[in-house]
Design a protein that fits this description.
The protein is an all-beta fold. The chain is built from no helices and 29 strands. It has strands spanning about 5, 10, 25, 30-40, 40-50, 55-60, 75-80, 85-90, 95-100, 105-110, 125-130, 135-140, 145, 155-160, 170-175, 185-190, 195-200, 205-210, 220, 225-230, 235-240, 245-250, 255-260, 265-270, 275-285, 290-300, 305-310, 320-325, 330-335. Strands 1, 2, 27, 28 and 29 form a five-stranded antiparallel β-sheet that branches. The chain has a four-stranded antiparallel β-sheet with strand order 3-4-5-6, with no helix packed on it. The N and C termini lie close together (about 10 Å).
Length: about 325
């Protein structure tokens, strides 16, 4: 399996050196893909056709809250819900939820600083959607769960999950398809702790997986397995229901900054601060039930600190990469 480099998408400014700093929303009906990334107090949105020039640009500003200094945006992510798609921005002051094109802000949640230490940085980070819930992580380790209606702005904070004692780094979700006690949400933090949940009107904690003090910047769920990328460059794949370790891969020489999954093909994409992007094929052994991994492709983005990497379609036939101080989105498609 080989990928070739396509025409890049030019940006108005360079992405910030934040992990998971790229989100892609495929729009199969129109043949378009939308891209979102953050830099400082701005979020840049682009739409493009395959192999073509950007069709539109939009710049969103983190203008919420009082004070002269604009808050820094920490992440942008499209949440695909059963009846609508929303764009969620997290920042140092709160959580903004927009219509998918960024045209209208439908909800704003301010972070509560009452329990923060005087010198402690406030921020939200880590976003995922499960059913009609949107989960957002915070600096305190809390995970905020928002109940989203089929339409309109009446979004409610329905629950706070308090298992983490360190800042949340990332959240991932996968449809549970209505089965009982099936893990469909995983949360990660700066200590590497992974918490596996069953979503619902009340989220249920299923498993805690220790990270031994190594941060876990990015995490994904695939067919009942948790794929986690760590600050030591390793990818570890666990059974979500039990926490048992399936595979440990020495994938990168520096901290992993992004993981993504193409669910229809079982492909895992990893990007890291070592300038490399790798693609792995996941499969489950029919006899043992264990996850097996095959390395499929490597791409070096020379002299670039990779800060975002995402597949552009569910089959994993194309992917995009962002890097710090790189004023373009690099795109690759299957040769």
């Amino acid at each position: 399996m080989m990928y070739r480099r396509e025409r890049p998408l030019l940006l108005r400014s360079c992405p910030a050196a934040l992990y998971n700093n790229l989100c892609v929303l495929p729009l199969p009906a129109s043949g378009l893909a939308q891209f979102a990334l953050v830099h400082g107090s701005n979020c840049e949105l682009l739409s493009a056709v395959p192999n073509g020039l950007p069709l539109s640009h939009r710049l969103l500003h983190a203008k919420e809250g009082a004070g002269l200094n604009l808050p820094l945006i920490t992440q942008a992510y499209w949440c695909v819900l059963p009846f609508r798609v929303l764009l969620v921005l997290t920042s140092q002051r709160g959580i903004q939820i927009y219509e998918s094109d960024g045209s209208v802000m439908v909800y704003w949640h301010a972070l509560d600083s009452s329990d923060a230490l005087p010198a402690q940085a406030l921020f939200a980070r880590g976003i995922a959607a499960s059913g009609h819930y949107i989960c957002v992580g915070t600096w305190s380790g809390r995970v905020l769960v928002f109940d989203v209606p089929a339409k309109g702005p009446n979004i409610m904070l329905s629950e706070e999950l308090n298992e983490h004692r360190m800042p949340v780094t990332d959240i991932a979700a996968e449809p549970a398809q209505g089965q009982d006690c099936v893990a469909d949400v995983v949360t990660a933090d700066d200590s590497g702790l992974l918490c596996v949940w069953k979503s619902g009107p009340e989220f249920k904690l299923l498993t805690r997986i220790s990270g031994f003090g190594i941060p876990c910047p990015s995490v994904q769920l695939w067919q009942g397995s948790v794929a986690a990328g760590f600050g030591d460059g390793q990818i570890r794949i666990f059974e979500a229901s039990s926490g048992a370790l399936h595979v440990q891969i020495n994938a990168h020489a520096r901290s992993i900054s992004a993981l993504d999954l193409a669910p229809e093909a079982g492909k895992l994409l990893s990007g890291a601060e070592d300038s490399f992007v790798h693609i792995w094929k996941l499969s489950r052994n029919p006899d043992s039930g264990c996850i097996e991994v095959e390395h499929c492709h490597a791409e070096c983005v020379t002299d670039t600190l990779v800060c975002g990497a995402r597949f552009c379609d569910p089959k994993g036939s194309s992917f995009a990469v962002t890097g710090y101080d790189l004023a373009e989105i690099l795109r690759y498609t299957c040769a």
